[in-house]
């Protein structure tokens, strides 16, 4: 077992991607990595107590013990619920497309132009 761990901390926003490697003691936890990388100073909107954090896509707590070469990911809160976003996209698609009868009438008119 090594005395030190190299950990990568990742925080991505729509404007920037922050990836910071830190070297920590072998008994380090997630909170140690986040504090050591300086992301809390660089992104003042982050609050250590309310962060959602994961390691390779799996949610973890601040007290989770780290292993060598892990990637700690800091997740942003969702702006919109994924199901609500899907409903909005579906609704806007329905509003943009003409109904079945309107399509049939348009196709019939086009056929009349071609035959006439």
UniProtKB/TrEMBL annotation:
It comes from the Bacteria. Transmembrane segments: none annotated. It holds the Pfam family Ub-RnfH. Residues 86-116 are annotated as: Disordered. Residues 105-116 have a biased composition (Low complexity). InterPro entries: Mopterin_synth/thiamin_S_b, RnfH, RnfH_sf. Belongs to the UPF0125 (RnfH) family. This is UPF0125 protein HQ497_06545. It comes from SAR86 cluster bacterium.
